[in-house]
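Q: Got a minute? One more chain.
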Amino acid sequence: MGKVSALLPVAVATLRKRWLGFVGSFVALTLGVALIAASGLLVSTSAGLENNDPSAPSLKKLLTFMAGMSGFVSVFVVASTFAFAVAGRRRETALLRAVGATPRQIRLLVIGESVVVSLVASVAGALLGLVLAPLFARWLVARGAAPEGFTVEFSAGPLLTAAAIEVAVAVLGAYAAARRAGRVRPVEALSAAAVDGKVMTLGRWVWGVAYVALFGTVLALFAAMPPGLERDPQLRDPQNLPVWSLLIDVMAIMALALFAPLFVPVLVRLLTLPVPLAAGAVGLLARQNALAAVRRTVSTATPMFLVIGLTGTVVGSTLTFGEARAVQSREALSAQYVVEPDTGSTLSAAEVRRLRDLPDSRTTTIRPTLVSDLGGGMTGGTTVATAIDGDTARTWKLKTEAGSLDGLKGNAVAVSSGLAEANDWQVGDRLGAALADGTPVTVKLVALVRTPLSLAEVLLPYPLVAAHLTGDKQPTAAFVSTTSGAAAATPAATDGAKVTPTARWGDGDDDPRARSDWITMIAILGPALLYALIAIVNTMMMSTGDRLRDFATLRLTGGNDRQVLSMVAWEAVLTAATAAVLALLVTTGTQAASMMLINRRVLDAGSAVSLSMPWTAIGTATVAGLALALVSSVLPARLALRARALDLAGARQ
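A: Always. Here it is, folded:
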């Protein structure tokens, strides 16, 4: 007990002397709690609320995935930051061991410090989350992803949950690092070099292998879609593949991040092969520092890897699924032109009348709607349906596996073959259902078809639902078929609508479906990406603050300030390059996985899209990460070098 009490002054002195490391941990945890708390408040408030447009992404699903992504990134960064802060105290821990502190006392000291910092940071983070949640709610409303009037209601549950998660992660991360620190031999206090030993711990091996196995299993299940999974419309519906693909991407990122200590030394050696020619002694010193302190290199590269890797995988998947949807939708259309609203989400009644009055042409319109409890036992309860007003069989060339779309009239319904198989439906069955306003109806199943991503899995004739639509009842798109050679019937664009030939439908950035995809992607990825960018600054500043003694040693042995700053800059460049290569590896793997899912679940044979990399997004994320890394490492180093070399040499590490 006496020895534990004797460590209290040491803890106080540590908090005062190593404030930069604790500030870094405090910032990481505060922002992590704020991110999870804000996401949790939005999810709890969204219960029972949905966008007025049934074709828009589910608000609750969108916010749930946003909360999951935010939680994943923040937990990873917080655990890494706290572990890094403890690992940076190698020499200090050895000195405590040299004066008689036991490994248990070292662990208690470190855990006590992490608990104090965590509790204070969790309170600050919860308060910040209360500010961020309404701001994001307004952003969602402004972009049509949430209904008008969507606001955040206060609830203590999400705040307490966020604080509990992040405090637990911080303490566990500190505890794991403290166990390693407690094993430091007292004689290591006399060592001037801090060379990392075994960085790939047993825990990293276990979790890394587990995530690789989980990645492969989930990918195989989604590609094969066995009967047990096919009964769940959320898993079976190809419309949801981009969201589930994001989950697969996260698993791949987690696996590679855990195995990073294996890759980092190899990448550093490969990337620094030309260094002797380009940078001389400064470059060689930066190279050896990165190789000697692998744990520090991994910790500083992790936030940058998350930024580049998440950007590459999410943007790549979004673009790939968008291209696949465009290819599939064009191939499924017989109509020559697609007319969509130029602004807003629906076409005006006057525009629809103008299209129907075109000579020598047919116009078919679609409207999204909701159907509840189709068939009485359909898994999922409520599903989106497409109400079709026009000639379905002549507007689309859908692959029909049973029945005929010519029968989609009156009280009839056509469904995707996957939905029918999951519920054991056959053509001719009469199915009970409830329309959007709750009106019960009985419909006859007239066709089993292969529905493209531009249509829902349930197709209904418009006259059946016309009096029961909720929200905006105008169509979201019109498809115009003209008589061969009838140039006069070609529809013209107006102020409220744009006309796209079928061959070019889905190309370009002005596709409303693509805009919806980007809004969804930004909502899911944006908060987590912003947090990871801030983590780059935070981690690089922590790393620089822990190296004051190294800087002093260089200056005392003849190095000047310019050489020290050049070394720091080279290390930042090397860290960014290592993170970029790791991100390229994971992006290539996840893009290949997305292509496999698309070719198995979305496109027919012969319609496969080619593998492509989102080079612009990856390059932008890399440049942004490098710029932040340079500023947040060189600037603190420049400020530190204002002190005398002897003063820096006496700084505690």
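A: Residues 117 and 338 are 58 Å apart (CA to CA).
Q: Perfect, thanks.
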